[in-house]
Automatic annotation (TrEMBL):
Residues 161-270 form the Replication protein A C-terminal domain. This is Replication protein A C-terminal domain-containing protein. One of its GO terms (cellular component) is site of double-strand break. It is found in: Nucleus. InterPro entries: NA-bd_OB-fold, RFA2-like, Rfa2/RPA32, RPA_C, WH-like_DNA-bd_sf, WH_DNA-bd_sf. One of its GO terms (biological process) is double-strand break repair via homologous recombination. Residues 16-25 have a biased composition (Gly residues). Pfam families: RPA_C. GO terms for molecular function: single-stranded DNA binding. Residues 1-30 are annotated as: Disordered. It comes from Chlorella variabilis. Keywords: DNA replication, DNA-binding, Nucleus. Belongs to the replication factor A protein 2 family.
């Protein structure tokens, strides 16, 4: 499937913060204004780790927090409170872990069952701070159903690397172009490139979102929500939406946004933060 193993030759690297997916455990205390979501190949991840400075990974001269990878599952394992995957994207292999719980719903367990060997997955997460390990601590994993997404991911990696090394730099307001028909073809909007400003809170709609999902993302991208490590709660979302939506509608929309990589849970299952923060 990968005709692009050479994409790793960009020599770019990746950085990220520690922390579990879905909780605050082990979370690095980052300035939220510096958090980004960067698309990487696994070779870029390895290159970044080889030049690691303490707990900091640098790519193209920029510190990276959250990352997204796409790869084929080679094997899975379950140990205690973590579920592990080894993935291969044609440029290298990486270990991915995500927190699990005995209280997980049947839907969450069903999703994990889909992450079997031979399937392609997209991972959103950050890099372990412990020692020089390269484990990716995921806050969201989903199966890839359209293999155009694999090609799209590599193109994102190239675009972001070239933009940061050959032009664009830190110009405020610049952002990676969203995936065409993002939800249908790629399952989510293109993540912001490291060093780019987060999308403005007003009128957030990268494409493929429903009206309620777009409204909720506007709330999650508000300055106070981005500035808080915990993000905002479901109750706060209900209050700020002015009674336009019911609790059931909000929870369903938040779950969909989380599954598509737009949101991730923070201190508990009721608090969420935008991946664009």
């Amino acid at each position: 499937m990968y005709g692009g193993g050479g994409f790793g030759e960009t020599g770019a690297s990746q950085q990220a913060g520690g922390g579990g997916g879905g909780g605050a455990s082990g979370k690095k205390n980052y300035d939220s204004k510096q958090q980004t979501l960067r698309a990487l190949t696994i070779k870029q991840l390895h290159d970044a780790n080889s030049t690691r400075q303490d707990d900091t990974l640098l790519l193209d001269g920029k510190e990276i927090t959250n990352v997204t990878l796409v790869g084929k599952v080679l094997s899975t394992s379950e140990s205690g409170l973590t579920f592990g995957l080894k993935i291969d994207d044609g440029t290298g292999k990486a270990d991915v872990k995500i927190w699990i719980s005995e209280d997980d719903s049947e839907l969450e367990k069903q999703r994990r069952a889909e992450w079997r060997a031979g399937m392609y997955v997209r991972v959103h997460g950050h890099i372990s701070n412990f020692g020089r390990t390269q484990d990716v601590l995921a806050f969201n994993i989903r199966t890839v159903t359209d293999h155009n997404e694999v090609t799209y991911h590599f193109l994102q990696c190239i675009f972001q690397h070239v933009h940061l090394t050959k032009g664009g730099g830190d110009q405020a307001g610049a952002a990676a172009a969203p995936a065409p028909a993002a939800q249908g073809a790629y399952g989510g909007a293109a993540p912001a490139v490291a060093g780019y400003a987060a999308p403005a809170a007003a009128g957030y709609n990268p494409g493929g979102l429903t009206a309620i999902q777009s409204d909720l993302m506007t709330l999650f991208n508000a300055p106070d929500a981005q500035a808080s490590d915990a993000g905002i709660s479901i109750d706060a979302v209900l209050s700020r939406s002015g009674g336009r939506y019911s609790l059931v509608q909000v929870r369903e929309a938040v779950e969909a946004l989380q599954n598509e990589g737009h949101l991730y849970s923070t201190i508990d299952e009721h608090h969420f933060k935008s991946c664009n923060a």
